[in-house]
Amino acid sequence: SQDMARLNFFDHRNPVAGRNRPADRATAMGYSSRMIAENIFVAMGIGHDQVASQCFQAWARSAGHYRNMMDSSRPEVGIG
Q: What is the band of 61 on the pLDDT scale with cuts at 50, 70, 90?
């Protein structure tokens, strides 16, 4: 999320060398690429008190995002 804000992009693919794919970023932090999933959400223009609720609701309505959140093989979450 820091790279997205600093470089003004919104994508799962990061233009910074060595951090291109979610798996690259996970591996750099010591996680197996098989253990991770990445959900991203544009929160610009949403009041701080509503961001978490609106983000969760959007992901819950999306089969793929919801599956990522509910997959018990991924017991940790990171939010940025």
A: very high
